Amino acid sequence: MAYTTSSIPEQTGKVAIVTGANGGLGLEIAKGLAGAGAHVVMAARNQDKAKSAHNEILTAHPDAQLEITELDLGSLASVERAATSIASNYPAVDILVNNAGVMALPERKTADGFEMQFGVNHLGHWALTSRLLPNLLEAPAARVVAQSSMARLTATKINIDNPHLIGEYAPWKAYNQSKLANYVFALGLQQRFEDAGVNAMSLVAHPGLTNSDLQNTTQDHGGAGFLGWFSQKWAKTSGMSPAKGALPALRAATDPNATGGTLYGPRFNTFGTAVRRPTLRPGMRKMTAGLWEISARETGLEVAPTS
Asked: What average pLDDT does range 33-41 have in this prediction?
């Protein structure tokens, strides 16, 4: 049986944080969780788009419990402000979906001097997860979901010595590395949850080929070359809708039979119903150790759960 939003079990009483909930996949993830009864915090940089998304969800689910929190993942100060606000309002956070991201941008830096894609897609989410970890561990069975991509498969490694690709930057190389970082972070966090003996799970999802805002934004910024043009055209002609592309992340966040460390994605990689996918990749232990070292050094924050 195909997985749909009707498959989501009752979420009433749960608090869910969704980054990038102002459009595309994030909007659909927030809509799915809110429709199942969760109180959803829509964490987004663009406040005008977030308000429009908020109204769209209420149109679909008039009784939805929603609020908007400003979050710029390209600024550690913004992450701190958002996390502080969330933590003060919600002692226990049940679901954190680290969804927001940018793709194949021309070389540029975050407010803290990080390469933009690694900074937003990984380091910003690392910092948010770190700051919300006490609240996540207060929940009976929290879940952290990372939104990765098939692009992780084309990254050969995470550059431990030069994560910001100084002197060797290429838009797609940086994007692929950031999506591999999302994947490694999710699986590494699960291992740390298990080592600490806490009742929390970390999972990872990828949306397959989805016609979302991401491809259009990439083209608007320029710098992605022919592959950027091709990915935009391919997504428009063959991609799934954002509602379908959001289903792997929704399943990771809510499936009562899910286990930590699971990857959910479309059955046929680029399209299809949300199913469990293999998570095998050589060299994970070394990559995980390196990613933890880089991330703690760059952000000044640890992600080290304790029981």
From this structure: 98
Taking Cα atoms as reference points, which of 138, 52, 58 lies closest to residue 96?
138
Q: How far apart are CA 110 and CA 104, in angstroms?
A: 15
Catalytic annotation, pick one of 3, 175, 183, 264: 175
Pair type for strands 274-277 and 263-266? antiparallel
Q: Which domains does the chain have, with CATH numbers?
A: 5-294 (3.40.50.720)
Closest CA to 101 of 64, 58, 65, 152: 152
Q: Give the closest residue to 104 by CA, choosing from 88, 86, 126, 120.
A: 120
pLDDT in tens, 286-301: 999 999 999 999 999 9
The question of whether 175 is a catalytic residue gets the answer: yes
Give the pLDDT of residue 279: 86
268-307 b/e with 16+ CB inside 10 Å = b? eebebbbbbbeeeeeeeeebbebbbebbeebbebebebee
Single pTM value for the model: 0.92
- Determine the Cα–Cα distance for residues 145 and 59; give it in Å rounded to an integer: 26
Alpha carbons 29 and 19: distance in angstroms, whole number: 10
Token code pair at residue 279? 């998570």
